[in-house]
Write a structure and sequence with these properties.
154 residues, mainly alpha, globular, disordered N terminus
Length: 154
C-alpha cells in the first residue's frame, strides 16, 4: 500500500509540476472564429490578454493603416472583433495582469514595445534568431505552441 501511495504522490507531483510550468507561459489564445480568421490571415492572432482594451480599441479603429497595411473590415466584423478583444483584454473584468504592470496609463499599439516583452526577449534572443524569425511579431518562429497559447521557449 505504501509503495502505491508513494507512486501516486510522485506521479501527481510530476504531472502537477508540468502544468505549473506550462501555466507560467500560458496565455489563453484567440478562440473566436472571426478574430482568428481575420487576424491570422496576415499574422498570428495574438492573445487578447497581451494588451489592455484601450489598445485593442485603438488598433481596431485604425485598420486602414494597420502597421503600414490596409486591414480594413466591414463595420459589423470590425465591431465584433473589437468586442471580443476588449472582453478578453489584459484589463478585462478589473483583473490584475502581469502584462499591465509597465504601461500605466499609456495605450500601447505594439506588444513588442511592452516592458515585459522586452525583458523576456532582449537578452535571450540572438541576432541570428531575430534574423531567422524575420520579425519580432513572428512568435511562432521560436514558440511552437504560441497559437495554442503556450509561449515556453524550451
Amino acid at each position: 500500500m505504501f509503495k502505491k501511495t508513494l507512486l501516486a504522490v510522485t506521479l501527481g507531483s510530476v504531472v502537477f509540476g508540468q502544468f505549473a510550468r506550462a501555466d507560467g507561459d500560458y496565455v489563453p489564445p484567440v478562440k473566436h472564429a472571426l478574430t482568428q480568421e481575420e487576424c491570422s490571415a496576415c499574422h498570428m492572432a495574438f492573445p487578447p490578454a497581451f494588451l489592455p482594451a484601450r489598445s485593442w480599441s485603438k488598433i481596431m479603429n485604425t485598420l486602414e493603416d494597420h502597421f503600414g497595411e490596409d486591414a480594413s473590415l466591414d463595420e459589423t466584423s470590425r465591431q465584433e472583433i473589437e468586442d471580443y478583444l476588449a472582453t478578453h483584454a489584459a484589463d478585462a473584468g478589473n483583473r490584475s495582469s502581469r502584462f499591465l504592470r509597465s504601461i500605466a496609463g499609456t495605450t500601447p499599439m505594439r506588444i513588442t514595445d511592452l516592458g515585459w516583452w522586452q525583458r523576456e526577449h532582449n537578452h535571450e534572443v540572438s541576432q541570428r534568431m531575430w534574423d531567422k524569425a524575420g520579425s519580432k511579431s513572428n512568435c511562432t518562429a521560436c514558440h511552437r505552441g504560441a497559437e495554442r497559447g503556450y509561449f515556453d521557449d524550451d
